């Protein structure tokens, strides 16, 4: 809250805007009482300028949260919608939803295991063979070794399975689209052979498509470039891709 109170960029919640109004009017009353009949403190009137700037910047960001231009705040009585109206549920063209917490997916670390060959068995006496030692007794040396390649292959298979499970479902967030454009994108996605199933939710100018697929999220993005060359990639990570239609 109040990370950049004098900036006109981004979005803020209703609670932050409400507190901003309280701060503005309380400060305005305090300055007004000081200036009332006291000419010695006329310079305090300059405080009104940053206070007004603060109110405009916070109001613009509240309009952005409703996916509207900051100029909407000069519309009569629109302040009621700014105070009580719900913002867009997901990201819009002005930024991410301020109610959502930034989530960084955990990094999967595969422990490095050094395979050690099984210990050799000691030689045991067996039936007489052509191998004769110096004492005149025949010995049959048998050594049982577990192949190291089998252990390494097992570790590699487990790692590939974990990677597949991590990236099998991807959330594709598409900004700056209407419902018709969303249907067109879904039609193109259904043409990809790597996709098992998909579902979507459409909000104001934003669509969120849940894709179940067989490859990684990066492989899915590579395929999107082929069928939709005019996209702008905004964010890519395991299980999440955010794009914008130009």
Commentary on this structure:
There is one protein chain. By secondary structure, the protein is α+β, with helices and mostly antiparallel strands. A 5-stranded mixed β-sheet has the order 2-3-1-5-4. The model is unreliable at 137-141 (pLDDT under 50). It has 6 helices and 5 strands; from the N terminus they run H-H-H-H-E-H-E-E-H-E-E. The protein is elongated and about 95 Å long. Helix 1 packs antiparallel against helix 2. It folds into 3 domains: 14-84; 103-159, no CATH class; 168-245, Alpha-Beta Plaits.
Summary tags:
246 residues, alpha+beta, Alpha-Beta Plaits, five-stranded mixed beta sheet, 6 helices, elongated
Question: In a few lines, what is going on in this structure?
Answer:
By secondary structure, the chain is of the alpha+beta class. It has helices at 14-35, 48-65, 78-84, 148-167, 179-190, 217-227, and strands at residues 169-175, 195-203, 206-213, 231-237, 240-245. The protein folds into three domains: 14-84; 103-159, no CATH class; 168-245, Alpha-Beta Plaits, CATH 3.30.70.
């Amino acid at each position: 809250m109040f990370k950049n109170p004098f900036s006109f960029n981004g979005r803020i919640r209703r609670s932050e805007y409400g507190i901003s109004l309280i701060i503005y009017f309380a400060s305005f009353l305090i300055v007004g009482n000081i200036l009332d009949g006291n000419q010695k403190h006329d310079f305090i009137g300059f405080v009104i300028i940053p206070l007004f700037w603060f109110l405009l910047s916070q109001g613009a960001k509240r309009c952005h949260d409703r996916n509207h231009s900051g100029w909407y705040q000069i519309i009569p009585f629109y302040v009621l919608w700014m105070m009580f109206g719900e913002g867009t549920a997901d990201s819009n063209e002005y930024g991410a939803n301020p109610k959502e917490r930034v989530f960084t997916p955990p990094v999967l670390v595969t422990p490095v295991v050094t395979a050690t060959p099984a210990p050799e068995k000691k030689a045991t006496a067996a039936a007489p063979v052509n191998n004769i030692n110096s004492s005149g007794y025949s010995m049959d040396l048998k050594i049982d070794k577990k192949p190291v390649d089998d252990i390494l292959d097992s570790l590699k298979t487990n790692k590939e399975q974990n990677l597949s499970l991590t990236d099998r479902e991807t959330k594709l967030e598409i900004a700056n689209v209407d419902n018709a454009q969303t249907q067109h994108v879904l039609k193109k996605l259904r043409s990809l052979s790597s996709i098992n199933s998909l579902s979507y939710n459409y909000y104001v100018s934003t669509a969120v498509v849940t894709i179940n697929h067989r490859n990684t999220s990066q492989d899915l993005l590579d395929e999107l470039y082929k069928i939709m060359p005019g996209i702008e990639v905004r964010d890519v990570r395991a299980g999440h891709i955010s794009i914008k239609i130009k």
